[in-house]
Design brief:
Layout (H helix, E strand, L loop, with lengths): L12 H16 L6 H29 L3 H25 L6 H29 L2 E2 L2 H24 L10 H25 L41 H35 L5 H11 L1 H12 L3 H26 L13 H18 L3 E2 L1 H19 L2
Antiparallel strand pairs: 1-2
Helix pairs in contact: 1-2, 1-7, 2-3, 2-7, 2-9, 3-7, 3-10, 4-8, 4-9, 4-10, 4-12, 5-6, 5-10, 5-11, 6-10, 7-8, 9-10, 11-12
Subcellular location: Membrane
Protein name: Ionic transporter y4hA
InterPro entries: Alkaline_pH_Ca-Antiporter, NaCa_Exmemb
Length: 383
């Protein structure tokens, strides 16, 4: 019997690890940690990531796609927003660009890293990774629009000096972001849900598989969760609770080790934007692992739902939250990207459109996206 369907004992690692990671957060919060304590918190962080992926898969198995990937994307993003606001409130002027750096890092990691890895794994398994071009194309268009409205336009507006929005412009960007996010969720989960369902790969027909049950009818899955009986409502609710505990622990433990990260970045003489990249890498780790595991089970569409859904949630929820937080946050809010990042964003959108349009991808497309992510990470370290 799969772990998704049986009742979890209190001694199961998927129960113990999130609780231990949360305790590590409680005992480390607001303290200067010595080296061994930082290592222990980092170990708890890694365990919480693995536990979060497990519980996200249990919830996804119960509610089906695209709701399953939506749960993880929204949960991670909401807590990521809380982390950004907390760090900005504590950091003063030196964190003026933290929201921009973290959100843009999330966009590049999801649209190039998660997408690239998922296509690579899917193509290695079946020679060609198959997905729904209609749903993925709509998600990509939403990501591109949100990114330009929130991260590119501030560089060119003239109401305030520097890459900043005026209060009215920031309000418009926040409302537009929230409206687009809500519209996308309505399309994804209600009106055109079939566009975001996993695609059958056995015959290569490109038709949505298993409209009920999140793709259990998919052929070729290698995990027992693929064909197992869905978990009970109670088991799914327990996993949902443990998922939230694990995600809180992930982001909280990431904040606990962030002073060490910031000190290491400063000591190495690296740009401050590297801190935002590291934060994004940490908080997106659960979604990355979940997306790769879905791709291994021939559910590349689920992987793309996670990737683009996370990018949309990252911008669509972060910008309104930051706009609201500016009521009490002091100092400037730098949102506009520099020339290098705008070029990388434009290249990512163009390459992504060419990848998504056919509804099929090979190793080449996966490799191209991973090279774009590598270029972004390299230029973040050496601008």
């Amino acid at each position: 019997m799969s772990t998704a369907t049986r009742r979890l004992p209190l001694t199961d690692w998927t129960v113990v690890v999130p609780v231990v990671a949360l305790l590590a957060l409680v005992f480390s919060w607001g303290r200067d940690l010595p080296g061994f304590a930082v290592a222990l918190v980092a170990l708890c962080l890694g365990g919480a990531v693995l536990a979060a992926v497990h519980h996200a898969e249990v919830v996804a198995h119960r509610v089906g796609e695209p709701f399953g990937s939506l749960v993880l994307a929204v949960a991670v993003t909401v807590i990521e927003v809380a982390l950004i606001v907390t760090l900005m409130a504590d950091g003063g002027d030196k964190t003026a660009s933290l929201a921009r750096d973290t959100v843009f890092a999330a966009v590049m990691i999801t649209c190039n890293g998660i997408v690239g890895l998922s296509l690579l794994v899917g193509a290695l398994r079946n020679r060609v990774a198959v997905f729904n071009a209609e749903g993925s194309g709509a998600a990509l268009a939403t990501v591109a629009t949100l990114a330009v409205l929130s991260l590119v336009l501030p560089t060119f507006t003239t109401s305030k000096p520097g890459p900043e929005f005026s209060t009215a412009q920031l309000t418009f960007a926040a409302v537009a972001s929230l409206a687009l996010y809500g519209l996308f969720i309505a399309v994804q989960t209600v009106r055109h849900r079939d566009y975001f369902l996993p695609v059958a790969t056995g015959a290569g027909t490109g038709k949505a598989a298993g409209a009920s049950g999140g793709g259990e009818a998919d052929g070729g899955g290698d995990g027992d969760g693929e064909h197992a009986t869905p978990p009970t409502s109670r088991a799914a609710l327990v996993s949902l609770g443990l998922l939230l505990v694990a995600l809180i622990a992930v982001v909280g433990d990431a904040k606990a080790v962030s002073p060490t990260i910031e000190a290491g970045v400063a000591k190495a003489g690296l740009p401050n934007a590297v801190v935002g990249v590291i934060i994004a890498l940490l908080v997106l780790a659960p979604e990355t692992l979940a997306a790769v595991r879905a791709a291994r089970r021939d559910r590349v569409q689920t992987s793309l739902n996670l990737a683009y859904g996370s990018a949309i949630a990252s911008i669509g929820l972060t910008i309104p939250a930051i706009a609201l937080a500016t009521i009490w946050l002091s100092g400037p809010l730098l949102l506009g990207l520099g020339p290098i990042h705008m070029v990388l964003l434009a290249l990512t959108v163009v390459v992504s459109a060419l990848t998504i349009a056919p509804g099929r991808a090979t190793l080449l497309q996966g490799g191209v996206h991973l090279v774009l992510l590598a270029a972004y990470l390299f230029l973040a370290v050496s601008p």
